[in-house]
Amino acid sequence: MKEKILELEQLIHTSLKDLSDSIFEHPETALNEHFACQAHCLLLEEHGFTIERGLVGIDTAFKASYVGKKPGPRVCYMAEYDALPEIGHGCGHNILGTVSTGAAIVLRYLVDEIGGTVVLLGTPAEETCGAKVDMAKAGIFKDVDVALMAHPDTNYFLSSRSLAIQPLAFEFYGKTAHAASNPEYGVNALDALILTFNNINALRQHILSSSRIHGIIKHGGEAANIVPDFSRGEFYVRATTKKYLQELVEKVIHCAEAGALVTGAQLKVDEFEPPYDDLVTNERLNKVFKEGIEKFSQEEIVAARDSVGSLDAGNVSHEVPCIHGYFPIADHKIPGHTREFAQATQTPYAYEKMAETVCILAYCGYRVIEDKSLMREIRQEYEENVKRGLIIPYTL
Ligand SMILES: [Zn+2]
Ligand SMILES: [Zn+2]
User: Fold this and answer.
1) I need a labelling partner for 8 at 20 to 30 A (CA). Which of 162, 276, 343, 358 fits?
2) What's the rounded Cα separation, in Å, for the pair 370 and 109?
3) pLDDT digits (tens, 9 = 90+) for 87-136
4) Could you tell me what percent of the chain has a pLDDT over 90?
5) Where do the structural domains in the chain lie, given as residue ranges?
6) What's the predicted TM-score (pTM) here?
7) Whole-number Å distance between alpha carbons of 199 and 251
């Protein structure tokens, strides 16, 4: 099978290189990825995929499917293609999306024989509002059996964890008054917010040290001689598990409620960005990814690396067995979100690793389909994590 996969990648290698390069030349920020979306769809259509555009009401989201001639597991690859303002593809999503589309096309030429379905999801806006969150909520991942992707980096890393994050906005509504002559008529919305900060600081001593709570004052009043009647603070609450995050969020909301109670202000709680769940790597699937790297690359594998940030792939991992690995595009350290990282996607080394990773991900799909007990083990691990409360799927 190794030879067959290598051969299939060779056949599409130039189209893949062109896809990555053309998206590099046309960087589009979150939700504006019309060129990239079209470029992926055209290539997938050329290889027999059926495309559903405008998925979950997002113009630049899509689902491409190819159903094999025999039944079998449904393997999903996720393609990102949004760029960053000013610095273009500083996160390398041009090559990331290309690797996923490449793996989907290679696997598509195997499934008529081995059975199964290949799905490629075009998932826009990873850098901002994360379309995968809407897709998870809408139940898109209920129709697949595994979901895979790999992000460019400077090493092969196995899939690991990322933090769950809940953005919270607190708005306090009070009453203005002259701050010197009639302060007794005022309801101080800024004090309510300051108390919220102090309450959170008191809470901080008693939370798991792996958690983070951090915020800013967005609006604190108009003039020093007017009692502020409006204040707004924005906070991020982060935790290693979705379950603990839910507990923590409740406590942080209590901090704001206490501020409102003391001052008499009215509180409005809102999300200002979608919440990202922690990534729960399916370790059985991760093992297959490792096997793939060993088969198709000479590079050393650096054991799993925890992401200090949050990923929208986290939400996917609560719906379906999932991995989010990493592949190298340079043989030396280059920080992400820089122009240098964008340039690194254009090197012979990056194209070589792109080809390897297409083969590795296609191989993972092949293994999941041809080894029935493997798919059972992957599913079992997912179900156990649900039972243990480590995975909390959306209930539709
Ligand atoms: Zn990024
Ligand atoms: Zn990225």
Assistant:
1) 343
2) 14
3) 999 999 999 999 999 999 999 999 999 999 999 999 999 998 899 999 99
4) 96
5) 2-162+277-387, 167-270
6) 0.92
7) 10
What is the C-alpha to C-alpha distance for residues 114 and 371, in angstroms, rounded to an integer?
A: 10
Q: How far apart are CA 333 and CA 324, in angstroms?
A: 20
Task: Compute, in angstroms, the gap from residue 324 CA to the centroid of ligand 1.
Answer: 14
Which ligand is closest in space to the CA of residue 80? 2
- Please say whether the dihedral angle defined by the alpha carbons of residues 241, 242, 247 and 253, taken in this order, is positive or negative: positive
The pocket of ion ligand 2, defined by CB under 5 A, consists of 91
What is the Å distance from ligand 1's center to 185 Cα? 48
Within the chain, residue ranges assigned H as helices are 2-25, 34-46, 93-114, 131-137, 189-204, 242-263, 283-296, 313-317, 339-344, 348-370, 372-387
CB atoms within 10 A of CB 209: 6
Report the C-alpha dihedral over residues 169, 173, 177, 180, rounded to 10 degrees.
-40
Q: What is the pLDDT of residue 225?
A: 96
From residue 327, alpha-carbon distances to 297, 336, 358 in Å are 10, 13, 10
Neighbours of 108 (CB within 10 A): 25
Q: Give the ligand at the shortest distance from the Cα of 153.
A: 2
| Mean pLDDT calculated for residue range 155-182 | 96
Question: What Å distances lie between residue 358 and 125, 235, 289, CA to CA?
Answer: 22, 39, 12
Q: Could you say which ligand is closest to the alpha carbon of residue 337?
A: 1
- CATH topology identical between 2-162+277-387 and 167-270: no
Residue 317 CA, ligand 2 centroid: distance in Å: 17
| Nearest one of 84, 97, 89 to 41, comparing CA atoms | 97
| CATH class of the structural domain 2-162+277-387 | alpha beta
202 alpha carbon to ligand 2 midpoint, in Å?
Answer: 35
Beta bridge partners, 149, equal 324
Pick the CATH number of 167-270 from 3.40.50.10580, 3.30.70.360, 3.10.129.10, 1.10.10.10: 3.30.70.360
pLDDT tens-place string over residues 249-290: 999 999 999 999 999 999 999 999 999 999 999 999 999 999
